[in-house]
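Summarise what follows for lecture notes:
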Amino acid sequence: MNGLLTRRLLPWSTTLGLLVLWQLVCVVLRVDTFILPSPLEVSRSLAQNTELIMFHALQTLMTTVAGFALGVAAGMALGLLLGTSRTVYDGLYPVMIGFNSIPKVAIVPVLVIWFGIGTVPAILTAFVTAAFPIVVNVATGLATIEPEWQDVLRVLGARKWQILMKIGIPRALPYFFASLKVAITLAFVGSVVAETVAANAGIGFLMMTASGRFDVPLVFAGLVVVGAMGILMYEVFARLERRLTFWAIRSGDLVT
């Protein structure tokens, strides 16, 4: 019981400690607000601009979730293709590696040419950022099926799609849900990057306009809000993973 309570309190106490350290550094070293605003100044900016921040945060959340949903659908489909067909894997995987190596900020101008400034480039940037880890994890999950299991099902007369349904997809589910936790945080990165370049709403747009006015506390407030939304969504998918793939979780302890 004490161990569980400690684990739940540890993230809060660590965050509080880092905030206190940040505040002390700003006060003791007399850091200019223009360089690094203190946590108190950031919190004051959050309180003074609550309505404005909420508007842009909801826009960023909407574009992120939309791009993430597209990434899940495409990533699952591509992962199944790559994991079940050696030909598709050999032909497509190097192309995907090359595409994923391109910085996502570099594709935003292309998306702007195609779709204009607004919500669509942010959604598509979140989509291309989130899809790759899902593809890789689903394909890896399918590739780790023991050959003995497949041999047994073939002897019993199972077809390829039946092997996929009976052991392939269940085996890939832990990998799939693990990838969702990574993909949702990457989707936030993609949407905010696109908003800083080509949007008229969203946290990225708010931060760019605030930096233009040298309102650094508001810029940091935007960073705090994006981080909070990322933690919230990560926790949602972590709980979903624990509930739906509990058989694959061997222990709550990390290797020490």
The CA atoms of residues 149 and 155 lie 10 Å apart. The chain has a mean pLDDT of 87. The chain is about 85% helix and 0% strand. The radius of gyration is 22 Å.
